[in-house]
Amino acid sequence: MNLRRTYSGRRVLVTGGLGFIGSNLTRALVELGADVTVMDCLGENYGGNRRNLAGISGRVKVHVADVRDSPRLPQLVRRQDYLFNLAGQTSHMDSMTDPQTDLDINCRAQLAMLEACRKHNPAIRIVFASTRQIYGRPDYLPVDEQHPLRPVDVNGINKLAGEGFHLLYSRVHGLEATALRLTNTIGPRMRIKDARQTFVGVWIRRLLTGEPIEIWGGGQRRDFTYVDDAVEAFLLAAARPEAIGAVFNLGGPPPVTLRRLAEVLVEINGGGEFVIRDFPSDRRKIDIGDYYADDRLIGRRLGWKPRTDLRTALARTLAYYRAELRHYI
Prior knowledge:
Order of helices and strands: HEHEEHEHHEHEEHEEEHEEHEHHH
CATH superfamily of the domain at 3-187 and 224-252 and 292-307: NAD(P)-binding Rossmann-like Domain
Structural class: alpha/beta
């Protein structure tokens, strides 16, 4: 599919656009010739980082704004052709210790965004960043889109509600919306100072600063999507009419245990060590165990498939942070 033909000259709003996936998506859209506006709150506990748009910041309109600031939403969604809605609170533990904030960002703000679109730009095309967390502990593997939805934490419940609002507004109000259920996404520009976004980021920071990686458990199997592959899925989902009103899993190369993931990271880095620890009791209660996705539906409908093998994804990520570490810690 000719994505340049789809996006060149079109107006695009990316919420969470200074964050990990949002900034990589923004960079791809700029290269495709889109007129991109980014909205990001740059909150201390979230993934936004101005460094993520280094080299293209002059080609992007940036609004430092919070999705909870509902009066600002109408002016941002007006006249936009596409909305990639990636703003969210991603920390599972923060959602358990501060559930109200998680509710406000992942639930109430999503409803307000959709209302702004319905009232001020009902023709806008929307893709929402959902999560595998809404499945909870799998009954079977790989997990397909028909799997029961049983979140194990507040974050998963609120993300499920946010996804549900998007699908409801598509079905009832005619907004053209799609939801992508993301698995562990990795790559350049992810948050590495803590585990609020992904534990892999913390592992990489520890490797590069000479600290041992800490693995909780180690036997859990997970799949990982490289960020460039995830970006392609967002672009295809917004461009293809077959995606309207649909939900798709994203997956990655064959799953690996967390122990094997650490071994591969150490090999690629040329050194380092890891230690295996028992799960902290508070984490164990909300851990989902093994998870990997069945992503065949998006392959059949949109022709998407993960193109980047795990070793390549990790090598590219490590190389990025060797050069950029000081901007992310």
